[in-house]
Write a structure and sequence with these properties.
globular; 228 residues; two-stranded parallel sheet; 6 helices; mainly alpha; two-stranded parallel ribbon
């Protein structure tokens, strides 16, 4: 009974941590985005060009947030077999963060925003815990590496600050997902994502786009993104 109680307390603490960790960034995004009731996310199967400069980087982040929001929306709508209440609560909170991030970028970009992407989740078995959480791990780790790699390309200090706030939330998501997969281990910050200097890895946009393209029917072009 004591072990069960401890596990329950740990799960509750993890959910509270994720929820509280996102409050600052989420609240800021809501404030900046305003009362956006535009849910028009009409997908496009044609090639979309992210653009150049800071607008291109924002569209890059917007594309990734669209993918994550769509994924977690499906996860919550069709829970995998054997999902616990604690897991569903955690995944729902992550979904809510990703939706707010997505909608914030859409509003911030305005007329410069790319169209809604058409996702391709055919390789994911949403009835399988291993498939869902394994994919979540890929998305979260990739998201952190993407923001880290794009940070040096942002010129506007305000955008850089925002990216820093969002990537910290994404990193907490990544740690939580890894803990679900391998509880009571050190894999939440494994050496597959942390370099020899103890820092999260940074990956350039071209490599990130290639990695996520299989999950998106829309062809995403980052040909005009800044590289330095």
């Amino acid at each position: 009974m004591q072990n069960s109680h401890s596990a329950s307390m740990k799960s509750s603490g993890r959910r509270t941590f994720i929820r509280n960790a996102g409050l600052s960034t989420v609240a800021g995004a809501v404030f900046l985005a305003g009362c956006n009731n535009d849910d028009d996310m009409t997908p496009s199967t044609s090639t979309v060009d992210l653009g150049s400069g800071d607008v291109g980087i924002l569209n890059y982040a917007y594309a990734l947030e669209q993918l994550e929001a769509a994924f977690y929306t499906q996860v919550v709508a069709t829970p995998y077999t054997g999902i616990t209440d604690a897991e569903k609560t955690l995944l729902t909170e992550i979904r809510d963060h990703e939706i707010i991030h997505r909608d914030f970028f859409k509003t911030a970009l305005g007329a410069n925003a790319i169209a809604g992407l058409e996702v391709n989740f055919s390789a994911i078995d949403f009835t399988s815990r291993a498939s869902v959480l394994g994919t979540a791990k890929i998305f979260e780790d990739t998201g952190v590496q993407a923001y880290n790699g794009a940070g040096k390309l942002i010129k506007d200090a305000n955008y850089l600050l925002l990216a820093g706030k969002i990537v910290s939330v994404e990193a907490r998501h990544a740690a939580a997902i890894r803990d679900l997969l391998s509880p009571n281990t050190a894999l939440f910050a494994g050496d597959d994502i942390i370099d020899s200097n103890g820092l999260d890895k940074a990956v350039k946009p071209a490599d990130i786009l290639a990695a996520v393209q299989p999950f998106v029917k829309t062809t995403i072009s980052g040909a005009n993104l800044p590289t330095s």
